[in-house]
Design goal:
Helix content: 55-70%
Radius of gyration: 19 Å
Distance between the termini: 21 Å
Order of helices and strands: EEHHHHHHHHHHHHH
CATH class of the largest domain: Mainly Alpha
Number of domains: 2
Strand content: under 5%
CATH topology of the largest domain: Endonuclease III, domain 1
DNA sequence: AGCCAGGACTGAG
DNA sequence: CTCAGTCATGGC
């Protein structure tokens, strides 16, 4: 594995050291994020669909609506298809997301229960998730990590922006390349990947809204720290 | 008052 | 295969 160089500094760290340094810097700065906020595994699955390109606050309302209606269950959702658009409206894209939720629930039913489905070997679980219309790589990995508990690193838009500003990636790599780059150079640990993704999102939400890295931007502080 | 969120799919070219 | 267009509400 070739060394990664941060463009802003002359220091060169091994990928292992660099990635872990980023992780621990974020962890020390923001503390544990305790994702996924959902209580049950099904809540994680539903939340993963509803939060696609959507603010989590809007998703919470939708999930609460499902809870209040008492239909936050596989059968409950399948039997209430007609009510879903109205109940999840706050999460946006309510028509396509209704369809996606139904698709996921149907897939789960093929395996009888959610626990059985999530108990599949990782590779099978991932390919089954990706075969569902409306579930892409990020959503699949979110379910694999936060519901099934397998150690996988999730790549999202924030991850791309932050890593490219830190000079770790060029930015045009595909999902799998970035994921393997991280997983080949960090311990494959569920807790680490759980917090790592959540921490990158937290950093992104605060400081990385299309702001180029510059002096005074906290992201440059992170960049400096990871090179010391 | 816009801009954009913890994406994924489709149709053009 | 790359990529703009589409889906949509609520928060800041």
């Amino acid at each position: 594995m070739k060394p990664v160089e941060c463009q802003r500094e002359s220091g060169i760290l091994s990928p292992e050291t660099l990635l872990l340094k980023i992780y621990y810097t974020l962890y020390d700065t923001f503390g544990p994020q305790h994702w996924w906020p959902g209580e049950s595994k099904l809540e994680v699955v539903v939340g993963a669909i509803l939060t696609q390109n959507t603010n989590w606050k809007n998703v919470e309302k939708a999930i609460n609506n499902l809870k209040e209606r008492g239909i936050l269950s596989v059968d409950g959702i399948l039997e209430s298809e007609g009510l879903l658009p109205e109940l999840i409206k706050s999460a946006g894209y309510y028509r396509v997301k209704t369809e996606r939720l139904i698709n996921v629930m149907k897939k789960i039913k093929e395996y009888k229960t959610l626990d059985i489905f999530l108990g599949l070997p990782v590779e099978s679980l991932r390919s089954e998730l990706l075969s569902i219309k409306g579930v892409g790589e990020e959503t699949a990995d979110s379910i694999i990590l936060y519901a099934a508990g397998y150690p996988v690193f999730i790549v999202d838009a924030y991850t791309r922006r932050i890593f490219s500003r830190l000079g770790i990636i060029r930015g045009n790599e595909d999902y799998g390349e970035i994921q393997s780059m991280v997983m080949n150079n960090t311990p494959n640990d569920t807790y680490l990947y759980n917090e790592f993704h959540a921490l990158l999102v937290e950093l992104g939400k605060r400081y990385c809204r299309k702001i180029p890295i510059h002096r005074g931007c906290p992201l440059s502080i992170l960049c400096k720290e990871v090179n010391e």
